[in-house]
Design brief:
The complex is a heterodimer. Chain A is mostly helical. Chain A has 18 helices and no strands. Chain A has two domains: 73 residues, no CATH class; 188 residues, Orthogonal Bundle (Hypothetical protein af1432), CATH 1.10.3210. The chains are: A mainly alpha, B alpha+beta.
């Protein structure tokens, strides 16, 4: 299929996550990075700094005192979370547009990406993962492949639907069968081209295939479960519906009971307004 | 005017100009009821079957749960003159991710709790489109009682 090369070439059309994004990614991947590394990156970008402070002061975090500097933000939220927020501010451009092939209106993919990243972050904290920012950023960017595949899905939608309805394929498998590549694999190729860490590439590639995660890995399961919860809540769900595979053993690996899932759903609903505010503050 | 019913939310109206709409039901249930004589309608979008999960939170927002939201939807329309025996009942949603089973199949449990409650109260469902792995959008026009359904990427169709 020569078409795949054509599709992959289109990665160039995306707005690459900027120089700052790269640096943040270094910090995210390197547990030894310090506050001065982070401050060094953002201090010359007033727009980014102002936006970051607005987000830190938003209702989602509910901090008692107003944060007026990056240093303070890190003191209150931790370097990991602040790095995540900078990454978020840097990703909106690519994910905000309407995706007609997936039947997502303007801002819908962004709203979903932020929701799913915040959920994944919560779950990662609950399970005491030490790379929360990696999980957050991967959850945020995992559907970047959809932005490119969108027009192809639109053109082949009937054939994709037919594969799902007649042959019981998942939406992901139907994408691959009809177009030649699925949005998760394409997203991983984007992440590779942008020099993201192998761990990040791996989460994006397998976000619908947690069965392919190593047995001791929790990052892919967490991103996966956060996505399942979003799907159940109808977030980011368009023409693909909920036509993806559910892996009970992955949910079990995280020691997640049905009550845990339901409580997470309630928690998500309770924070919905704060999440919506976060979505708009971050450029959705 | 479109009145959007969010996730874990309910709206009732007898304003003929208004249209109730709820977007993107996954495993949640959208329950619409309409009395053609009183010309009042209501729409509930609940997320989970039972309030026993967290009674305090259910008190704060009863529309998150089927067992607390459903009675409130009916009661609210009665305030506007609706009568139970005239109500047209529409149920959509309750989807599942492929192979989601047992307790984890919240879509199915959402549907079961509704059927039980309606059955106990002798209320008949007039239209139902539930389950599968699709997402749904439901719309109800208050002036006419006409309801519309959109399923995953399809068009809005009259029910």
């Amino acid at each position: 299929m020569k078409k795949i090369e054509e599709i992959i070439k289109e990665i160039e059309k995306l707005k690459p996550v900027s120089y700052i994004g790269d640096k943040i990614m270094d910090i995210v991947s390197n547990p030894d990075s310090s506050l001065s590394d982070l401050v060094g990156i953002v201090k010359y970008d007033q727009g980014m700094t102002a936006n970051l402070l607005r987000i830190c002061n938003s209702a989602y975090f509910g901090l008692a005192n107003e944060i007026v500097s990056i240093k303070q933000a890190v003191a209150y939220l931790g370097i990991d979370k602040v790095a995540s927020l900078i990454m978020m501010g840097n990703s909106a451009d690519n994910l905000s547009e309407a995706q007609e092939g997936y039947d997502l209106t303007e801002g819908e993919l962004w709203r979903y990406s932020v929701s799913s990243a915040l959920l994944a972050q919560d779950l990662a904290e609950k399970r005491n993962l030490n790379n929360v920012s990696l999980v957050f950023t991967a959850a945020l960017l995992k559907d970047i492949g959809k932005v490119i595949l969108n027009t192809y899905v639109k053109d082949s939608f009937e054939a994709i639907s037919k594969e799902i309805q007649d042959n019981g394929l998942t939406f992901l498998d139907a994408e691959k069968k009809v177009i030649g590549i699925d949005h998760a694999e394409l997203g991983a190729r984007v992440a590779e081209q942008w020099n993201f860490s192998p761990a990040m590439v791996n989460i994006i590639r397998n976000h619908h295939h947690p069965d392919k995660a190593p047995a001791d890995d929790l990052t892919i399961p967490i991103v996966y479960v956060a996505d399942c919860i979003c799907m159940m809540m109808g977030k980011g769900v368009g023409s693909d519906g909920l036509a993806y595979t559910y892996y009970q053993d992955i949910v079990n690996r995280l020691h997640f009971s049905d009550v845990d899932i339901q409580k997470t759903i309630v928690g998500f609903r309770e924070k919905l307004e704060e999440i919506e505010e976060m979505v708009s503050l971050s450029g959705g | 005017m479109n009145l959007v019913v969010g996730v874990g939310d309910m709206k009732v109206s007898n304003d003929p100009e208004s249209v109730l709409i709820t977007y993107s039901l996954g495993s949640c249930i959208g329950l619409a009821i309409y009395d053609p004589v009183a010309k009042v309608g209501g729409l509930l979008h609940y997320m989970l079957p039972e309030s026993s999960l967290d009674k305090l939170k259910a008190k704060k927002n009863p529309y998150m749960f089927g067992d607390t939201g459903i009675p409130l939807l009916f009661k609210e329309t009665y305030k506007f003159g609706a009568k139970k025996n005239r109500l047209k009942i529409i149920v959509v949603g309750g989807s599942q991710i492929l192979d989601q089973k047992g307790l984890f199949n919240i879509g199915k449990r959402n549907h079961t709790v509704l059927r039980k409650m309606l059955w106990k109260n002798n209320a008949m469902i007039d239209f139902e489109d539930v389950g599968g792995s699709v997402n749904r959008t439901l719309r109800l026009e208050i002036e006419t009682g006409q309801a519309w359904l959109k399923v995953s990427g399809g068009e809005m169709n009259k029910i």
